Amino acid sequence: MGDDVTRGTPPRSATWLLGVLLSEADKDAVIGDLIEEHALRHSQSGRRGSWWYWSQVARSVLPFFWIAIRRERWLGILGAAITAYLLATIIESAATIEISRLFTANALPQERMGLLIGLSAMALGGYTAAWIRRGAAAALAVIIALMVVALMVTMSESVPLWYQLGFLVFGPLASLAGGALWRRRQCKKRVF
Amino acid sequence: MPRGELLGSLEQLVLLALVRLGTNAYGMTVRREIEERTGRALSIGAVYATLERLQTKGYVRSFIGEPTALRGGRAKRLFRIESEGERALRTTQETMRKMTVGLKNRWGTT
Question: Potential cystine with A33: which of A11, A122, A141, B28 (Cβ 3.0-4.6 Å)?
Fold first, then answer.
């Protein structure tokens, strides 16, 4: 059985994503449940079950987000997320203006640098949101996704598709990564 | 349970799973119990969100179990139905039973 469990290790990235969304109190129980069922499925069917694991994580994002909002007083979380979003947008805009001065002739480096700076700003926003209120980085990720979709609908012709998709996929992830970074730093502080 | 308030379908399923599982009720077993008996493949998030709601209402309580190697050394969060939860479940089931009485011929079943 132990061998089966080892070979049937669930996808780390999915576990990481779930860990970002969950509070410390829930993390062990929920991830442990998924790991246990993943191992059980693997020993029964012999298949890795990565798809099942990913589908569980993807379908659980909204319910766990809802739990966080209920527990942490949603108005405070939303306020923290909006504050962090505004801060990230100001930083991104200021940096983009500077870049446009440097790359006036060639648009491609400007767009690439714009994406990089935008994602860095979102990660910083996630870090700040998590610092203000626990769970706010996840709320910021949702706000970013909604804003990008809104911009894709209204400004789709003026911006390249890869640029739009880059922000849609990696923007929310950058926010979650920023939040995870803050939490990791807090854990290290507690240990030492 | 406030007068007139009935449990939702997911709340009923989760509470019934807790009754069936007894001392071995935690997220994973509740999810599997519902899936095996009803064919409804819930996400673990939906199960925990329902348990959280039931706990807020005072229908269930939770406590931390022992960590096991199968779970990568992570502890279980076990759940148990409270007497208030059992009462709410009985009231809801009884109300539904009253509403379905006499419909046997119409539906051809139950």
Answer: B28
